[in-house]
Amino acid sequence: MSFGTTAGHNIGQTYTEGGFQFKAGTVDGLYTDQNQIDHSISLVNYNLPDTITLTHAGGGNFNLASIDFAPYGAPLPFSDLSYSYVAADGTIGVPVAMHLTTGAWTHLLLSLTNIKSFSWTANLSGDAIWADNVVATSVAATPIPAAFTLFASALGGLGIFGWKQRKSATA
After folding, report:
1. N or C terminus: which one in the chain shows less Cβ crowding within 10 Å?
2. What is the pLDDT of residues 40-56, one digit of tens each?
C-alpha cells in the first residue's frame, strides 16, 4: 500500500486503500508524511500511545504477508512497538513487543493467513511509528465446485436405483 502522495496530511481516524482499512484508536491518530529513511510517503501512528488496527474494508478475513515499521524519532530503551492479531476463529495472537532501530526499517515477515485483524501500538512516550510496505491480500470465499452438484445427483440416482432393485426383488 502506498498511502497516497500527500506528505504532511492528517488523515484522521481511518484510512482505506486497496480494500483494506487502517483505524486509529483516537480521532486524529493517522497521518501521512515523507519518512526520513527512503523518503516515500508512509503512515504515521501520530497520537501515543495509540493502537492502529488493520482490517479488510468490506469485512471478512485476509492474509498479511509483511509490514515495515520504523521509529519516527530516537527510540527509548524499552520496546518501541507491540503487535497482535485476531485469527478467523477469534483466537487472539500473543502480543509481541519489539525494539525498532533508529534510521532503518524493521521488516516483519509475518505470513499470517486467514486473519480478521492486525493491530500495533507504539509504546514510546512522545515519538510516533512509521508503517509502510504493507503486503495484504483478501481471502477468497471457498467456492463449491460444479462437480459437487453432479456428484450429489449421481449418488441420489444410485440410491434410487438400488432402492428400486430391492423393492422389485422382494415383490
Report:
1. C
2. 888 887 667 788 999 99
